[in-house]
Amino acid sequence: MPRPIRWLAVALWCGLIYWFSAAPPFTGAGTRGLLARWLPWLSPPALEVLNFLLRKAAHLTAFGILALLSRWAFAPHPRSGWGAWAFATLYAVTDEWHQTYVPGRSGQAGDVVLDSLGAAIALGVWAGWQRRRGSNGAPS
Fold first, then answer.
1. Is the residue at 138 inside a domain?
2. pLDDT at 66
3. Predicted confidence band at 97 (pLDDT cuts at 50, 70, 90)?
4. Which of 102, 106, 107, 138 could pair with 76 in a Cys bridge, judged by C-beta atoms 3.0 to 4.6 Å apart?
5. Is residue 139 part of a domain?
């Protein structure tokens, strides 16, 4: 696939992360309200735990996907995994900074760490899968 198309996929995913970061339903209070509406039988403490876990899983997943898309865009560079991790981590920093300007949101250093961890996990799983397959790890 042509490199510009690969980077377009990265840019679109970054745009989606940006949109979710600014959308009121995806603030802590917003997701708590949605969960309370969808799962009215949950106790308030259980609702808080579920809200926390879902929001943190979203961080891991979103930035894991960003790292994999970035790795694909950087390939076949031999250090594409490191570049992808750095790109995802830097985007996490800008995303959290962006959230400091969004009503109902706040930038959290812990979320940057979580986003960076999500990127590292996804890239590590990808690298392990590629080694098992016996390939050089460069997606086509």
1. no
2. 98
3. very high
4. 138
5. no
Residue 73, CA distances (Å) to 68, 87, 114 in order: 9, 11, 22
| 36 within some domain | yes
In whole angstroms, how large is the CA radius of gyration of the chain? 17
CA–CA dist 116, 74 (Å, integer): 18
pLDDT at 3: 86
pLDDT value at 136 more than 90: no
Q: What is the extent of the structural domain holding 21? A: 3-132
Dist. CA 27–CA 7, nearest whole Å: 28
Flag whether the pTM goes above 0.70. yes
The CA distance from 77 to 135, in Å, is 15
* Contact status, residue 84 vs residue 32, Cβ threshold 8 Å: no
Length of the chain: 140
CA 48 to chain centre: 21
99-120 pLDDT tens trace: 998 887 888 999 999 999 999 9
Q: How many domains does the chain have?
A: 1
Q: Enter the tokens of residue 32.
A: 């708590």
CB-based contact 93:110 (threshold 8 Å): no
